[in-house]
Structures are given as C-alpha cells and as structure tokens.
Amino acid sequence: MELIITEKDNAARRIADILSGGSMDATRENGVNVYEWGGKRCVGLSGHVVGVDFPPEYSDWRDVEPAELIDATIEKEATKENIVATLRILSRQAEIATIATDYDREGELIGKEAYEIVRDVNEEIPIRRVRFSSITENEVTNAFAEPEELDFDLAAAGEARQIIDLIWGAALTRFLSLSAGQLGNDFISVGRVQSPTLKLLVDREREIEAFDPEDYWELFVDLTKADDDAESFDAQYFYLDEEDNEAERVWDEADAEAAFEDLSSTSEATVVDVNRRTRTDAPPAPFNTTQFIRAASAIGYSAKRAMSIAEDLYTAGYITYPRTDNTVYPDDLDPEVLLDDFVGHPTLGEDAEDLLEADEIRPTEGDEETTDHPPIHPTGEIPTRGDVSDDEWEVFELVVRRFYATVAEDAVWEHLRVVAEAADRSLKANGKRLVEPGYHAVYPYFSTTENYVPDVTEGETLSLTDIELEEKQTQPPRRYGQSRLIETMESMGIGTKSTRHETIEKLYDRGYVESDPPRPTRLAMAVVEAAENYADRVVSEEMTAQLEADMDAIASGEATLEDVTGESREMLEDIFAELADSREEIGDHIRKSLKDDKRLGPCPECGEDLLVRRSRYGSYFVGCDGYPDCEHTIPLPSTGKPLILEETCEDHELHEVKMLAGRQTFVHGCPLCKAEEAGEGPILGECPDCGDEHDGELAVKTLQSGSRLVGCTRYPDCEYSLPLPRRGEIEVTDERCEEHDLPELLVHSGDEPWELGCPICNYQEFQARESESGSDLESLEGVGAKTVEKLAAAGIESLDDLTDADPDSVAADVDGISADRVRSWQAKA
DNA sequence: GCAAGGTC
C-alpha cells in the first residue's frame, strides 16, 4: 500500500480525486479522513502535528531563572494526537510513503515531521517527496510521476526558526512577567513578530504625542462662466513658495488676510492656463491575503472577521485558499471558463456576460508570484443567498468582483486643470471626469467621485464669488489602521500571510492595544522601551531579516542548524547578562505603566488617583488609589468592559469612559458627571445598613438603564437598595415615616399622584405580597434578588441558614454587606 | 500560563 501524506484534509481529498480519477472511497480513522483507492491511501495533516517545547521541569515560571531556558533542551511533542496516531497506524501498513505537503519552507518542515512519524514505526520503507505549485491534474500527475527526496536542509531552516522563536520569546516573556509580578493571565509577552509590530504602533504614538500643531489658512472661491445658466465650481488660492513650488497653505495670518482682501476687491477672474489630459487607471492585481484584508476593511470588516469569513467560504468550496502571497493567476486558471460559471446568475451574471464580450481577456498580475497557492479567487461554485449569511455573501461578492476587475479593461479619466488670476492672485481648479468606467463598472469598491470643472478657454473671464478664508491646523500623523498595519508588516517581512492578522489580535488580548484603529497602551510603551533599552533586536525588523538570511544559509548548506541557533543563544546570553541588574527598575516601570492605563484622574475627595478597578464579582467600578485611607468610589455601567478615552471632562479632569460591549458599545462619558446626573437625586436620610459606620445616605437614583431606585450613596461598597416605580415623577414630601425616619414619597403619573409612602415600608409590603415566591431571604428589608444571589454564593440560601451564620464571616465573604447588617437581619429573623 | 508557524 502506498501512503500519501498532505498538509491538510482538503488537499488530501483533491489529490486523491485527481490520482484516482474520482473513484476513491473516504473512510474515517480517529476522526481523520482517509481516502482510499486501488492500493493507495491518502491522508491530510492539519499543518504542524508536532510542536517544540521545554521539558516539564522548566514549566514553573517562578522556579526557573528565565536565562536557564537559553540552554534548556527542546523537545518535540505531538500536538494533534489523533492525527499522529492515525499516521502511525497507516504507516505500519504501508510499503511506501509519499510526502505531498505544501511547496514552501514550512511545508518541508511539516513533511519532515511526517517523515519522522513514519520512520518511527516503519524503518524500512522508502519515503519520497513530491512538489507541485497548484493542485491541478497536470501538476499533480507530473509530480507523482517523478518523485524526489525530502530536503532536510530546508526543513532544518524551519526548525531553527522554531527554536529561536521559542527561546527568545519564552525567556524574555518570563523575564518581563516576573520582574513586573504579572503572572497568570496577565503576563507580559515578547516575540520576534509581535514586538516589532507593537513598536510600529508605539513609534507612531510617540510622533502623535510629540506633535505640535501649526496654524495655517486656506482660501477658496467660487468661479462661474458668463453663461446665464452656468454652474459654479470651486477654485483654491495658491502661490509659489521659495523653491517655486505651488503652495496652498498660507502660514501667516496677515498674509492670508491680505490675499482675502485682494480677492474680495474684485468680482472677476481671468483664465490664464487650461491643461487637459487623460489618465488610464489600470485595474487592480489579483487578491493576496493582505490586499484582500485591505479591501474587506474598506467595506467595514476587521482583519480577523475578514479572514474568518474567507476561511468559511473556502471550506464551503466557494473561494480558493485565503492564505496566499501570490498575486499572479496560475496558467491553469482559464478566466473565460470561470466567468462562464457566473453567466445567468441573477445579480452577478450580467457583469460576467459583459466581460465575456471583450476580444481578449488578459488578467492583471501583481509583483509577487509564489508556488504554494493561487491568488484568492472564486472557484465557480456559487452559494445561494440562503446558504450564507449576509456578511459571507458580501465578502464572497467582493472576491468575485475582484476577479472580475482583474480581467476587466482599464478605466480612463479626463483631468482638467484650470488656472485663473484675480487681483494678481492665482487660483486653481482641478476637475476630473470618468470617461471610460472600465473595471469600475464591475468593481464598485473604489471611489469614482468626479469633480466638476467646465470647459473654459485661456483669456476667458469668469465671475468670482463666495470667497472663504479657512483657518486650519496641521494634523498629527494618523494611527495605523489594522489593514495598513498588515501591509506595513508585509513590506517589512514581519510575520506571514497566515499570522499577521492573528498577531494584531494577540496585541489586543495582551492589553497592548485598545480600540480600533489600535492605540497602544502605556503598558505597551513601557514594554517597547524596556526592549529597546536591553533587547533591541527583539523589537527590530532586523531580527527577522537576519533569521531569513540564516535560514537561507541553512537551506543551501552553507550553515547548519547548530551554527545558527548557537549564535542566537549567545546573543541572548549577552542580553540577559545586561538585564540582570535592571530587573527591579524594569519591573517598577511596567507596574507604573499598568496603573497609568487604569488612571482616570484626580480623586475629588483626596487628590490621589482614581483608577478603574474590578470587584471580586467581576463588575467594574472607579476606586481611589488611596484606598483604604480613601474609600471614594464611582459606579460604572454594568454592561461591557471600560475603555479609558483620551478626552477629559473639564469639570472633574477625569478621562471619559467608553463601555465596550460588541454592538452595544457606548460612550459613558465622565463617570463623575454621570454619577452626579444619574445618582444623587434628593438625599432621603441615613442608610440603615452603613449609616452608623460609614455615614452612608439613601438617595433617589436613576440608572443608565433608566430604572430608578433608592440606594446608598456609598454604592458599590454598600449595595443597600429599595425599588421605585419606573414611571412618574417622584416627589419627596415633608412627612416622615416614624419607624424608619425617611420621608414619604409621592409619585406623579397619570391624573392623580399616588402615595408610595416610606420606601422601606413600601418595600416590606411588596415583599409580604411576593414572599410566597422566591427565597424567603427576600422578605428582609433592603434585600433584593442580587443580594440573594450573592448570599447564595456564600452558602446562605434561606433565613435559617442566615440565623446560623457567623456575621463576621458573612461580611468577609460577601461584598457590600456588613456584619452589623447581618446581625440586624438575624434579630428580625 | 511563554513564540511563531501551520490549520479549522
């Protein structure tokens, strides 16, 4: 039996299909598809099925000096056990094995991993390697007709990368995490790809922070031909600067006003120059991963979402493999045949038919031609609208239309530039008109906005009106958007087509960036600074470039894996020698930056910093850094994760807060303003729970959701609350309840106000009515569903449990409930 | 519980 091993299931199925002429059978072994026909079996891996790691004795971060990892042994272990097990079973039964993984460096390494698994159970059989650049009948049959040998040098190049990435990444990650005391989920990560990417963002942020805006002025006028019904058009003032270049920005206010005065003194302008030219606008190249992400991002998809949809469309068979660097269609793609598949389709058919009418169809080509996968294009299989979500359809249509664009004709623009003079000042207008829509007719994602400038002739007099002097400011450079960042990574050679978008996600997960476009946090700034000071290589693109060169040397036999990894280990040893003395300093800086990321501004009570904190129950609130000396807190909305914005509130000097909750994301604003607006309505009296101990008071509050309650001013430290009706205006009367010393409330809704009375009495009556349902704990005054839930979490589910409990331990276990309050409940129960 | 690279 011949065993054929491919990089993924999809490739296994297609290769089996080609080699068997469609006659293969599919079976499943350990959940892995195996394709069988006439003495052959074909199985797909799932990329790497083994991974590198340190032995278990290195796994406790606190027990191992990070520098010890540099010379630690590195083991290979199965990461996809079921696939490895299946491969072992099939290998025992095989008489010959053929490795048919992707034709690139990582594919060679994956092939070597398979080779070792086969050899481990079967020492004798020949193991061959076939290489083909696309899975087509021609290429595959040719490759199998003349099998080759595995390239162990090329595989070793990939192994060197694995080893270097692991050692540098793990050792530096552990060092920074330990120095800052950030273990567990909040470790501080460093890596050859993520750290240079982060540095790109941090460098840009530094430019933005250092930016000093400058004022300038621009002048605009309306010009109109003398005809009766002529439409006016915009023109802009310009002058020649010291180097005789045209300039529109006027840097001096007096100069700008002088120009304004001059232009205001006349109502005519004379055309002095007319320049007409046509420009051809060539259609775009086929999609590689990066350009696909860029186009999808222009229609509102994040990099992650775009790739996830593309992967689904690929798995379903509608588009080709979405991870590719290739921008040249392979020879076996016949555009006419593919266009034919769309003929007759209700929404995509007409454009395909139009394209087929051209005399000759010649697809565009990009600069990069690789051998592993074709550019992303539709397969010819078209989903029905019901088969896919709206988003999937939108992305599918983008891929189809991009393919259309690559086989469509050039567009042609006509540019018209007019220069006029008025009161010795120069004016210019730039018009453009799309004369031949070309590929834009089938690819509507690029702007085709025209700018109207009429036909004028030299010497013609135009009327001049509506002079506007606009004061502007130079703007700081813009942050990288996700797709721009991916393009930059690609041009610097950082990461791969499959990992760049994941790297960006990783930066979000690690707390290094927030919001979109990604903005680096103070933590990110501190980590990049630490790396720049002590381990410059790991934040530089240089490290990847050197690694690429070293890998080429290994692949060509000029160097060995040991040479390259040995040298890399020495470099890292040097870095750790420097780092040792600065451990505390680095840790302090990172810890301080972590606090900066949570800082809202000064505490109105004590002047220390207010920080965004998280209660033991996971909810967010604002608390003072001076705690426990200062117990000032401000509530935050219960939905979402707070993001601190750059904007600050003028009244309180606090940063505004945005609550990130997917589609329900909203800007909360200054928490103190919100608390003042929402919360503290009229104060009713002392809080029965914490009034004695902490001076808590009851107030009428309105929540973000619009619902109202009587609650303690010390929320969230004290969660005493009483319900209020949703509707009607609440009036606080002068009459007081003798038992609870609170004012009686009136509710104005409808024609007649109704008496709610003392809010505690009202609640007790309500509880009495409701007491049959729910926990009997709810019959206690001031105890709502939320408190019942918390008590239940501490093991107290009924009044009986409560009477048996120790008040101090309950107070210790349950946030916002004091021992005194428990005692008062016990007395009543 | 570290990286980056395959793949899902």
Task: Write a structural description.
The protein is an alpha+beta fold and 829 residues long. The chain folds into six domains: 2-45 and 80-150, Rossmann fold; 174-210 and 484-591, Topoisomerase I, domain 2, CATH 1.10.460.10; 215-282 and 412-473, Topoisomerase I, domain 3, CATH 2.70.20; 289-408, Topoisomerase I, domain 4 (Orthogonal Bundle); 601-778, no CATH class; 779-829, 5' to 3' exonuclease, C-terminal subdomain (DNA polymerase, domain 1). The strands form eight sheets. Strands 2-3-4-1-7-8 form a six-stranded mixed β-sheet, sandwiched between helices. It has a six-stranded antiparallel beta barrel with strand order 9-10-14-13-12-15. It has a four-stranded antiparallel β-sheet with strand order 18-19-20-21. A hairpin with a 2-residue loop joins strand 13 (411-422) and strand 14. The longest helix is centred in the first third of the chain and has 29 residues, at 152-180. The structure holds one DNA strand of 8 nucleotides.
From the N-terminal CA to the C-terminal CA, the straight-line distance is 80 Å
Would you identify the regions where 5 or more consecutive residues have pLDDT less than 50?
A: none
**Sheet with most strands:** 6 strands, mixed
Task: Bin the strand percentage.
Answer: 15-25%
Helical content class? 25-40%
Strand order of the largest sheet: 2-3-4-1-7-8
Shape: globular
State Rg. 35 Å
Q: Look at the helices and sheets and give the structural class.
A: alpha+beta
**For the residues shown, what is the average pLDDT?**
89
So how many helices?
25
Give a count of the beta strands, DSSP E runs of length 2 or more: 31
The number of distinct structural domains comes to: 6
Catalytic activity: ATP-independent breakage of single-stranded DNA, followed by passage and rejoining
Protein name: DNA topoisomerase 1
Keywords: DNA-binding, Isomerase, Magnesium, Metal-binding, Repeat, Topoisomerase, Zinc, Zinc-finger
Enzyme class: isomerase
